[in-house]
């Protein structure tokens, strides 16, 4: 149901919220780096949790979340107060529309 929400492609997300690489050099901080990510948040950095939804898309949610979390993103830019949870998509956004068509 992603088409009902404002969203952006991963590249636009990365440009809007410049990311700090994890200690291992990956973009997504694995859950094993939770303490380091928490420390980054305590030092003023923005944390997003990467969540896998039932539609197999990945979303970025503002702050720390546990359910369906895949890892974390750490950014130098704070999310706005009206940040919509489902905006980080890996893959083709048209897939969500195709998934909706399958429900008919």
Commentary on this structure:
The protein is of the alpha+beta class and 104 residues long. 24% of the residues lie in helices and 22% in strands. It has helices at residues 10-16, 34-42, 94-102; strands spanning 8-9, 46-52, 58-62, 69-75, 88-89. It has a three-stranded antiparallel β-sheet. A two-stranded parallel ribbon has the order 1-5. β2 (46-52) and β3 (58-62) form a beta hairpin. It is globular, with a radius of gyration of 14 Å.
Helix content: 10-25%
Strand content: 15-25%
Taking the alpha carbons of the first and last residues, their distance comes to: 13 Å
Q: Tell me how many strands there are.
A: 5
**What is the H-and-E element order?**
EHHEEEEH
Main pleated sheet: 3 strands, antiparallel
Radius of gyration based on Cα positions: 14 Å
Tertiary shape: globular
Strand arrangement across the biggest beta sheet: 3-2-4
Number of helices: 3
Structural class: alpha+beta
Mean pLDDT level: 77
Count of structural domains: 1
Q: Which spans have pLDDT < 50 for at least 5 consecutive residues?
A: 99-104
What is shown here, in short?
Helix content is about 25%, strand content about 20%. With about 100 residues, the protein is an alpha+beta fold.
């Amino acid at each position: 149901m992603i088409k009902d929400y404002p969203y952006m492609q991963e590249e636009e997300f990365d440009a809007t919220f410049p990311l700090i690489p994890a200690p291992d050099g990956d973009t997504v901080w694995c859950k094993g780096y939770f303490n380091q990510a928490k420390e980054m948040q305590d030092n003023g950095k923005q944390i997003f949790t990467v969540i896998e939804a039932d539609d197999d898309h990945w979303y970025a949610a503002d702050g720390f979340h546990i359910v369906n979390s895949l890892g974390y993103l750490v950014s130098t830019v704070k999310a706005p107060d009206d940040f919509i949870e489902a905006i980080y998509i890996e893959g083709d956004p048209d897939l969500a529309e195709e998934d909706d068509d399958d429900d008919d």
